UniProtKB/TrEMBL annotation:
Organism, scientific name: Laodelphax striatellus
Name of the molecule in the record: Alkaline ceramidase
InterPro entries on file: ACER (IPR008901)
Chief location category: membrane
GO molecular function, one term: hydrolase activity, acting on carbon-nitrogen (but not peptide) bonds, in linear amides
Residues reported to bind Ca(2+): D19, W20, E22, N24, E33
Length: 274
């Protein structure tokens, strides 16, 4: 646990059950943890772009919801690190679990043929809703961060296992590439998240000896937001691409490729040979 800064800011004393390594109100009176806050832009801007692209590229509209849930986590995390208030911590942590549940659901149903029912796998939808509701109820009564980390972690592991299974079934190269980038980015972010927690006093002394221009780059929790945000954004892409892999017709000539420096998934028509 990070030592609380002596400086009090706009939002008053922190009431959250976790205070991260970044010193509170060091940069701005209105933002408790400046770099841990602004790094959430990586969980806000890409999903906004992703939502627009779902419409532009004509993907199934439910993928807007997947991007939207990542956006909610980004906004919640922004509010949490900006205020360090318990209510805002819940705004970050509860959507992490609910949002990952929805991702697990979406990954599970890409193989199913499209139908008009709201839930093509009702049993799984109920299981995930029961899991997330139980977590929410227990966590509200017993706000142990480890419970949230474990519940979220289990869902993330399930989502990666589902992606491995989808790649195994279809052998899609694009999905494989998306998966490798997503998994390695996520693991690297998680490694930094741990370093930030374990070596916090060392990071503080390192920052004191560094130039103020470079020291923000040592805010490893902020880097976690960037890497985990991007990894999750790519997981939505895997969902979209797998959906295409399983549902494309024989006459489909277009191909869905990763582009825009890894932030876009777009249709490409094969060049006609003359
Ligand atoms: Zn955070
Ligand atoms: Zn694919």
């Amino acid at each position: 646990m990070a030592p609380h800064s002596e400086i009090l800011g706009y939002w008053g004393p922190p009431t959250a059950t976790i205070d991260w390594c970044e010193k509170n109100y060091e940069v701005n009176f209105y933002i408790a943890e400046m770099y841990n806050t602004i790094s959430n832009l990586m969980m806000i801007v890409p999903p906004l772009w992703g939502m627009i692209e779902v419409i532009n590229q004509g993907f199934e509209l439910r993928f807007i919801f997947c991007h939207f849930l990542l956006l909610v986590v980004g906004l919640g995390s922004w509010a949490f690190h900006m205020t360090l208030l318990y209510e805002m911590q819940l705004f970050d942590e509860l959507p992490m679990v609910w949002g990952t549940s929805v991702l697990v659901y979406c990954l599970a149903v890409v193989q199913k043929p499209a139908n008009n029912r709201m839930f093509s796998n009702g049993r799984l939808a109920i299981c995930l809703a029961v899991f997330s509701s139980s977590f929410t109820a227990v966590y509200l009564l017993w706000p142990q961060p480890l419970l949230q980390h474990a519940s979220y972690g289990v869902l993330v592991l399930i989502s990666f296992a589902q992606e491995i299974n989808l790649i195994r079934l279809k052998g899609c190269k694009v999905c494989k590439k998306l998966f490798i980038i997503s998994l390695s980015t996520y693991l690297f972010g998680f490694f930094l998240w741990n370093l930030d927690k374990i070596f916090c006093p060392n990071l503080h002394s390192l920052r004191n000896s560094m130039s103020p221009v470079l020291s923000p780059f040592t805010q490893l929790h902020g880097w976690w937001h960037c890497f985990a945000g991007y990894a999750t954004y790519l997981q939505v892409f895997i969902c979209i691409h797998s959906n295409y892999d399983f549902k494309k017709g024989k006459k489909e000539t277009r191909k869905l490729e990763l582009c825009q420096m890894g932030f876009g998934l777009r249709w490409f028509k094969p060049e006609k040979s003359l």
